[in-house]
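Chain A, query sequence.
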Amino acid sequence: MPREVITLQVGQAGNQIGRRFWEQALEEHCQPDEDDDHGELKFTDSMSSFFHLHDNDDLICGTARKVRDRIVKPGALKARAVLVDMEEGPVTETLRGPLRGLFDSHQSLTDVSGAGNNFAHGHHCYGPQYGESVLEAVRQAAELCDSLQSFFLMHSLGGGTGSGLGTYILTLLEDDFPQVHRFVTAIFPSEDDDVVTSPYNSVLALQQLTAHADCVLPVENQSLMTLAAPFPWVTRSGSTVAGFHRPSTMDRLLAPPCPPVGLPKEGKMRPLPRPTPTAAPAPAAAALRGAAGGLEQAAERPACGFDGMNDLVARLLLDLTASMRFGGELNVDLNEITTNLVPYPRLHYLMSSLSLSSSTGTSRNNAQEWEPLGSAQAAASLHLRQICSKVFARENQLLRADPRQGSVLACALLFRGQELSLADVTENVKKLQREMNMASWNKDGFKIGLCQATGSSSSPTSSGPPPPPSLLSLTNNSCVTSTFLRLLGRFQKLYRRRAMVHHYAEYMDVTLLEEAREDLRGLIEEYHGVGARGKAVGRRVTGCGAGSLVA
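Chain A, predicted structure.
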């Protein structure tokens, strides 16, 4: 039986990524029963990883065992999520948008003033003020789980709420749920970021991530922009992606929720105002279509800018959990990721790469290039060779680093595709092993996952071609230090002049900036040391611009 994951969306970036994540998760899971004349959806084991069922009519608020195979009624499907931001805008947009039926008022927490792009404000002021309220929301979500396996924290490091309050929440999760894995998707700011204090915020947050996370999936804004920019795709419900079309399924699931009742208390969850439905009760299908009307209107509008970038991060998380949600020849659970890819506690930063034809639509290969060559199996074998040959290319990484220039401590290759064979996958992985600079003590350090379920928005119609295979690579590689060194250099430019330090002194001891800097230096040294023991790759990291630590 699949195990559950609770997501925590913190800050503006975290909530924007969360919206794309839940849209794609709905598309993966919420397909009506083909044998049912009414096309009704039944709650399945795979859905229980991200969703639970709350049926007000029958007073059922249950876990997968209690509500398995029940018909999902309008508004009954709820996300296992907690939404947090110290400004109302991002959370309000979610709770008033097409996905509003997925969330109840007790799942959100907001303030009005924001953290002012200041880690210290978010971590040392808002953290103690709202920490217990966030924990209470997490506890309520955990009570609805049969077997909670992981927390997914989505946030950025450049701002104040995501970096400060996000890492504070991480420490609370470690204390209250020590046996539950903590996976963090951390968005690193680009070098031309408009937040002047982002180097301070990022270095301070990295110290907390190194100490309290089990796995960190670092993603750079610059890499996301580079990958997303050339491709005008549509990922909304009922969209066309890579030549495939499927009808909307969210319009049958999401119903307008009842307005929240009662006034918020100081320091407690602050439910946001939502539109009150004024129309007379309508049949279920019509009511659901009305609730998801925003998605239907957006179906013809191409995603661009931040939407396209957020799609990539959402796809990363969905591919990461595919094996735990769906069947396959080689299933990989989240605890296997931490066990096999983290050889030392502090070295848990995993570089990620998505195949160029992943189902987000970020593909240079359109549907016409994915034609059956004699058979679907032959086509899958050819496509598999193509995506494996490019998975470690620098331009395909979600972090600006070259995995071929560092030492690979461990790697996971998670495949998705209906026609993939284990023999073909094994053959391609052996080729990759010969090409990569594997650590001498872990020459066979590849973890393979093989899931038959394809990604969202990639399922063809019954008469169309099979969707192409996709691949997610997670690599614990010493070249991640190139990103750390660039960030450290930007930190030093500010700190040499003690610029902006007085803003942090309002909420914390400024010596914590120096401690965070030294902690990051130590992390870089540890990665360099392990890489050098794996193979003599030298101290210099290609692309970092300097071969030694910044003074």
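The CA atoms of residues 237 and 296 lie 7 Å apart. The chain has 16 helices and 15 strands.
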